[in-house]
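Class prep. Protein, please:
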Amino acid sequence: MEKSRIFAKNTTMIHRAIVPSILSSFGRKKVVVLLGARQVGKTTLLDELRQRGSHVLRLNCDNMDEAIQIEKRSSTELRNLLSPYDMVFIDEAQRVKDIGLTLKMIGDLKLDTQVIATGSSSLNLADEINEPATGRLTEFKLYPLSLGELAADRSELEERRMLPQRMVYGLYPEVVTDFGFAKRTLTDLTNNYLYKDLFMYKGIKKPAVLQKLTRALALQLGCEVSYNELSNLLGVDKETVENYIYLLEQCFVVFQLDSFSRNARNEIKKGKKIYFYDNGVRNALLANFAPLELRTDAGALWENLMVSERMKRNAYRQSYAITHFWRTRTQSEIDLVEEEDGQLRTFEFKWRPTRQCRQPRAFAEAYPGSTFEVVTPDNFWDFVR
């Protein structure tokens, strides 16, 4: 498959694993939607894709003058606007009122023009989408750089050496390519961009609560989360906590794993663990960039890095694996349970393994045929690649 070369500020070329999948979707007369947090490289990716067209229209919808060019347009107006171009980019599409209806209308036109819309939040955060665009869109998600992408650009040996830095500062492109300003970049990101889309959404009535919630989640990294406890801690009702966590997911700040339960009586059936898409963002929320040797949360950072890397890996290879964690009331636990095509794979994450680790007997007996692997800094490449 062809690889994309994305140019960062210092001219380093980093191959984004998602590009072959995006290119393979061209020509199907569907709108391509590329979602991802701010600053993960969507605009840079569009710059590379732009080279595929000879006549390209680009609309940056953070600019109101450009957003209104496609807002509340009829099908005829959209056809006249878009059809003269090979490619049309609608950047930060969630800024366009009723963007879902607009994309549906574009999809219904079946234009030869390849339309690509990007968003820094899932598009249902836009004002009141009146009609779904399901069936007319091909959706992709772009994440911060992955260890696999960096290893392909540099080497596995080099990225193994950089693990302590990645665990603390994360994998946002600007952090990786301009590391001398990593703290400033991450601080600016969390202060100026992290909540930008959320605060513009009408469902956010208590911004201070949202900020306290993200900090509380950062402190509970790798632990099972109780919505009731968070509700009491923040002084808001449980429904508000649930809604705000859902919105944080929509803006690619955090993601959840549900507990895995099928057979055993003492399995926890309704638990949740919440991870951050990027370690650096998590640490910036706590203003803690201390080196690993001075930290008490190195194990949790390793777990977050591995779970988020696996999520990227599965997304980019278009895997349909379902991921969970597993725990019993007697405190037996497995960090990650992955189910795909009827096969159960289980994983435990150990930054500094001190003893041999085995699959809990209760799980092995309840789910015979499942596999088990301990993922450490010595063997993680097969897990994330």
The longest strand covers residues 333-340. The radius of gyration is 22 Å.
